[in-house]
User: Fold Flagellar biosynthetic protein FliR from Fodinibius sediminis.
Amino acid sequence: MTLFSVEMILTGFLIFVRVSALVGSAPFFSNGSIPVRVKIFFAIVLTVMLYPIVPIQGAGVPVDVSTLELVILIIKELLVGTAMGLVGQIIFAGLQMGGELMSVNVGLSFASVVDPVNQSQGSIISQLFGLLGILVFIGIGGDTLYIQALARSFDIVPIGGGHIAMAGPSFIQMATYLFVVGVQMAAPFMIVLFLLDLSFAIFARIMPQANIFFIALPLKLGIGIILLILILPYTPAAFDQFFQKLWDFLDRLIHAIS
Assistant:
């Protein structure tokens, strides 16, 4: 099989499909502020780099493959790359969910800003956690580890050999972990502000003539800001623990669809 044969060109194209699907869905790589042309160029460069290390045996696509079979292979590779990228997005969604829970308890949920990463609106605290998560992700070499996982996926899941239906149980576990991450991040706020609301309720029963809403809103906001200042130094270590779980989920997913 020569280097520029039709079989190898089709194989290279399928590699590009999986790589581009991951680049378009994985954290940091799918950043909305990165131009699409840059993402496509990066996917092409990554495909050229991965091409020599992809197992050749069983990877070549026959010349006489039908159009329907080729479309099925493209869809399979597209789903495999997207599934790998969504694993990281679930962890980041958990971080942003924790920020949303904090904002609801503090009273900042009505103040939303545009997320420069996902090009969507969200609360201020969730945006803060999303940006901080990206910084921690890059700091621990998450982009490099993702590329290594992509290269390893070609050894475990050959081209056209992905059984994406087997990823269902893994994604159910990851969706459960999303809520765990969100609640763990927001637990200090939920507990402290619940006790504060309870004290306000008792105070309102003792002094019904007092305007409790006028007192509660600035007080909850001030205590929420103080809590946020207290927990911020510990968030990078917590994010690091969450990202370690990400690599475990990613490894399980690759083996599940093999």
About this structure: The longest strand covers residues 112-115. The chain has eight helices and two strands. Helices lie at 6-23, 36-50, 67-106, 124-139, 142-156, 168-206, 212-231, 235-256. Strands lie at 112-115, 120-123.
